[in-house]
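Would you mind giving me a polypeptide sequence along with per-residue structure tokens?
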Amino acid sequence: MAQLRIALAQVNSTVGDLDGNAGTVVEWARRAADAGAHLVAFPEMMLTGYPVEDLALRASFVGASQAALERLARRLADEGLGDLPVIVGYLDRRTVGLVRPGQPPGAPLDAAAWLHGGEVLVRSAKHHLPNYGVFDEYRIFVRGDRLPVVRVHGVDVATAICEDLWQDGGPVSVAGAAGAGLLLSINASPYERDKDDTRLDLCARRAREAGCALAYVNLVGGQDELVFDGDSVIVGPDGSLLARAPQFTEHLLVADLA
């Protein structure tokens, strides 16, 4: 059977520091390559920092995020990392298709991209936009409508973003229907008391529902009143814990999936 070595880069990013965050991606992608990983994934909105709040409504900032993503893809290749698939969160915009009445100006997207060979090969966006607790995403984003599945080292990898994992159906059920071997979820999930137990239970349940392994990479660090605790996890198709990162510190979590 195919074996996939996956690396989850549980790192800190700074809102608005596109160049600094891109440098962090390059640094940790190199660590993943040195560890023999076949792909490396970074948290939700890694390139822009999270939460971007009303920066998402500024066309100039969305454009800067898109340009930074293209530069990052080329830089990874220039620094000898072009053969390593890199999955990174960033801010994008919807340019075609139907959007809801009263949509945010410019139709911004909480997006994820696959970078490889100096190019941005695959783009997708968050389907479910939370609007409870500390979240205000329905006001500043529009919904995505795609679930990319990319074959890496013989394994079909489906990509979802944060809240997509918490909501029943949606990308999780589609990943199962597509026969994915891995569901990769990139996240910026704030710390709450006992959330580590809740998070692990969720990942185990979703892995069983999708019938595949699940890798959950989370942001770490602080932004304004929010604290992100990391606690990235990888679980098997039966929900068993395969690997787990520590809380409140940057960490590269590496695991082999048979």
